[in-house]
Amino acid sequence: SSDLSRYRTENPDNSFDDIGGLETIKERVKEVVELPLSKSDEFSEIGADPPTGVLFHGPPGTGKTLFARAVADSLEDGTFYNINGPEVLSRWYGESEREIRRIFEDASQRDGPSIIFIDEIESIASSREGSREVNRRIVTQLLTVMDGFDEFEDVIVIAATNRPEDIDQALRRPGRFDREVEFPSELPMEDRVDILETVSEQEEMNVADSVDFTGIAEETEEWTGAELKRLLNDAAVSGVKDSRTTIIPEDLALALRRIERSRRGKQNESG
Ligand code: ATP
């Protein structure tokens, strides 16, 4: 069996302050994940049930992984476990029951609270016909562990998906993934500006005063957080190519046109 450190990160280096915009999601994630884990004694004293599982759903690049890491980081002695659906399907072949149990046991034995993040859960727990035997075994084990959660203290499972409608409904029953957080496909204008500002600060980018993030936000309707981050990075690379150490408006304009072109390509492919 594998070394658990492959999945585990202590205090992941992502904070809520590094997330641009998305204020409502921040509040919701703090309420459904951070509060029950940071105040677990108060929860049990007052008689409130902490959540076992939370489903994050929304398109790729909207910040689901980022939020799961940030909440783990915000918790004192928090630990983050990252399980990628498609990857474990091949690695856990024949030993999924044991692996799931080992991860949950490890998580509950840590000094602080733990977040177990399962990315692309639909690859394992699809409701579609013809789901493979291995997938069924993993889902069954996951549900067994979650149903017996009283023995796993201070652990919350966050599952992420782009296709919530494809998930086996058995996962959504009470005591399982019974809370959800929706990551919108479109961001309001202020959020796009805030993401550009937050990411450029966090990455310590050298941005010229003449750069106008509001103007860029106006031209990037329907862009995700990941695409805005890529825009800044591509602009920085274009500055380096031009032998500069400052990002100027032309770098952003060039990067914007390129990404816009590849976005249109993708839309044509899928449409
Ligand atoms: P996927 O479904 O593809 O796993 P995701 O929703 O988990 O996507 P993330 O991996 O969290 O997306 O985000 C992709 C990248 O975009 C990351 O580098 C992340 O830091 C950045 N990003 C996304 N949204 C924001 C945001 N609101 N503020 C700052 N960075 C963001």
From TrEMBL:
<feature type="domain" description="AAA+ ATPase">
    <location>
        <begin position="50"/>
        <end position="187"/>
    </location>
</feature>
<protein>
    <submittedName>
        <fullName>AAA family ATPase</fullName>
    </submittedName>
</protein>
<dbReference type="GO" id="GO:0005524">
    <property type="term" value="F:ATP binding"/>
</dbReference>
<keyword id="KW-0614">Plasmid</keyword>
<keyword id="KW-0547">Nucleotide-binding</keyword>
<comment type="similarity">
    <text>Belongs to the AAA ATPase family.</text>
</comment>
<keyword id="KW-0067">ATP-binding</keyword>
<dbReference type="GO" id="GO:0016887">
    <property type="term" value="F:ATP hydrolysis activity"/>
</dbReference>
